[in-house]
Specification:
The complex is a heterodimer of chains A (415) and B (356). Chain A is mainly α and 415 residues long. Chain A is built from 19 helices and 2 strands. Chain A is flat. With 356 residues, chain B is an alpha/beta fold. Chain B folds into 2 domains: 2-128 and 259-318, D-Maltodextrin-Binding Protein, domain 2, CATH 3.40.190.10; 131-256 and 322-354, Periplasmic binding protein-like II (D-Maltodextrin-Binding Protein, domain 2). Chain B is globular, with a radius of gyration of 22 Å. Classes of the chains: A mainly alpha (415), B alpha/beta (356).
Chain lengths: 415, 356
Amino acid sequence: MTDTTSGLTTSDGRPLKAALLAAQSKARRRAFLLVAPLLLFVILTFILPIAYMLQRSFENDGFSDSAPQLAAWFAEHPDGSEITEGAYAALVADLATMQANKTPGQAGTRINYTVPGTISLFKAAARKAEDLTPPYKEALIALDADWAAPKLWAAMRSASTSYSADFYRVAIDQKRGEAGDWARGAERERIYIYLFVKTFILSAIITLSCLLLAFPIAHLLATLPMAKSSLLMILVLLPFWTSLLVRTTSWIVLLQQQGVVNNILVALGLIGDDGRLVMINNQTGTIVAMTHVLLPFMVLPLYSVMKTIPPSYARAARSLGATSWTTFRRVYLPQTLPGIAAGSLLVFILAVGYYITPALVGGADGQLISNMISFHMNKSNWSLAAALAAILLVAILILYWLYDRLVGIDRLKFG
Amino acid sequence: MKKLLVLSTALTAVAFSAGADVTVMSWGGDYTKSQVEAYHKPFTAATGTAVISVDSDNPAPAVKAMVEAGNVTIDVADVEYADAIRLCDDGMLEEIDPAVLPAAPDGTPATDDFLPGALTDCAVTTIVFSTIFAYDTTKFPEGPTTIADFFDLEKFPGKRAMRKGAKANMEMALMADGVPAAEVYAMLETPEGQDRAFAMLDKIKKDTIWWEAGAQPPQLLADGEVAMTTAYNGRIFAAAVGEGKPFGTVWDGQVYEYDLLVIPKGAPNPEGALEFIKFATSTQPLADQAKWISYGPARMSSGPLVGLYQDGKTEMAPFMPTAEANLTNALASSYEFWVDRDAELNERFNAWLVAN
């Protein structure tokens, strides 16, 4: 059989196999060219920024760039060696170069991320570096006793290469102790792990409330006659098309203490004027507003799945004697699972990264980890922001993997 | 070839004239309005260069982002003192030689005319603004009078609002706890001092709403959401005098600081930007700005020229942060302190905020 195949030729005498291969590769090339713009787009707008962010979370050359001599000293002397006059001499030489290049602020900023109070230390020393005379160790320490601090030297060592895991340490609430080693920060300074956990819990609550609200709506949409369901669909989509900021601010108007809801409750005599409910600028505000904002992302996948479930199944179950609850639980609900899975995943992942709504209505206790990321972006500590974002990304990937193992990604159905 | 040359020259000329506008990024609201009236319009009238105004909650991070990305779209930015120093240290700003700034009308050179510390390597101060606290006069007709009253929920019940951040809040908390203004920063350097400030903030934490944009506090007061709020003095003035809102300002414990104009490195029109800054920080425009908002001019020669508010009847002088009567218990914000402690204290502040 193989012999005959390989012996076959096309009309112009080429082996059939080669001709087929040539024709196929042409088609493949064409297919590739068709998707090339999309591929390029995805690489440019998605892969590269994420790669850059991951790199940024490790890389910060603010100090290493301007302190080459000290970096060389650190390279020669392994961790744990005594800080000698040679190190101080290298530092003073670098400080003088910094002053000439106007970079002491930059170098100090990098060290300041792990040891507070060092920007002005660097600036003051750099200003006087030219006039210092050996022994440099005594000279520097006479300038400011902080130059002898072990944690400062530990911080400079770790910042003397452009790549370090410092920002990940900070992102999991670690601080440099007086001796320079990393340790868990004081309780009043711990924030990120707490916020990560809180972000996931709040996102789960929001996903659940979205599901509870969206399920009946989607069912109604899928079963009502066309004319009525289109009208309902518009009601679902209208907020979806409205600006996020408008929707969030309308919740402020509704829920604030002098707002519509409180005014109605007071007018009805349900609560006293001094007992107005606090529903915004706290966690409740975040949950309510985000549930509303994300609701369409739950309704739409659910609807598209429910639409495909033939009503005859439920009727068959009922005619076979199942109660309405059993019919729902054993027949209807299992068939909607792909929609529930898709909607929940969509809402949860969107909620985990949400930033603007909690910033506006979250007050103090309704903040999510994304608010901290934006905070550090604004405070120009991009490396820490990147480290926090990278941790968030990894956490979501792990959840996605778990989800795949439990539910099965191939069972998802978005529409 | 010649044709091509002519064509490309013509195109370049067009590109230049299109890029000759000056784009200024500032803080929005009444503050930007005061700049438009006092700087932008007269500058355009005098030079024919159009000025485009862009709003931001804080222009400093935007400047950093633009310079790092190598895509600077603004020529001038209005930033706070500590940010001006930091950005300058990071090499993100053009240097501005104070010698090019115009002298005062009486011939005093700019370096002597500006308030002390108002000229830095990369920035020129325009105004002195202050963080004060304001209250709703319908709720407290007698009114709180000292910074301690802000933290006293028993004597003055009702919600509070403060800026979401450590700066100014820490200082006010210590002053309310009885620390003299002169000792505030020395105390904040120490962990005990920081604890003391946070202990003070703890007293009102449960009843406090945290604002981020300068336009929020007058809104919160007007809505009746809060009874008292910290705010930038000019915003409260604009709402109280300009719009007749029932707001009172308490100057006791005010924290005042400078606001400065800077030119980001790589600005599309640096020459125009420098011309704009020279114009905007000259004596008359600085004095004119006070007509629109109650921020003090940074030039001493502007002081006597400050006249009436735009309504034509309100004398501005008593509403300035630098007025004699307002300085009895006032603190000049220390940029040196905040350049160093900003990251540390804000981290602790954030942790404090989310902890229950």
